[in-house]
Amino acid sequence: MSPNSDKPVRIYTTPFCGYCVSAKRLLDRLSIGYEEVDLSRDLELRQKLIDETQWRTVPMIFVEEQFVGGYDDLYARWKRGDLKHLEPRKADAG
After folding, report:
1. What is the secondary structure of 21-52 as a DSSP string?
2. Which of the chain's termini has less CB crowding within 10 Å, N or C?
3. What's the mean pLDDT in 77-81?
């Protein structure tokens, strides 16, 4: 899936998805930019993603164009430090 923005993360979601909300909150807390794509009205895109990833549930999360899985997978990557390079660098104090 080719990105439509310069944001490092793309999240495919549907409305009323608790795990989608959790993933977006985590990324917001880390100040990591993301593009959200609502799959609820695009069944063709949803089927294409299922065929490509073998993943049927949302969120479907891509980091730097690589499919990583859902919220639990994103959270695990954060805990391991695998998202550090996407977080904005803090200005040196002083």
Report:
1. HHHHHHHHHHT--EEEEE-TT-HHHHHHHHHH
2. C
3. 97
Helix (H, G, I), strand (E, B) or coil at 10: strand
Q: Where are the domains of the chain?
A: 9-86
The single residue listed with the structure tokens 């899985």 is 69
**Domain 9-86 bears CATH identifier 3.40.30.10:** yes
The answer for 81, left when phi > 0, alpha when psi is -120 to 50, beta otherwise, is left
14-56 pLDDT, tens per residue? 999 999 999 999 999 999 999 999 999 999 999 999 999 999 9
Strand-by-strand arrangement of the 66-69 sheet: 34-38, 9-13, 60-63, 66-69
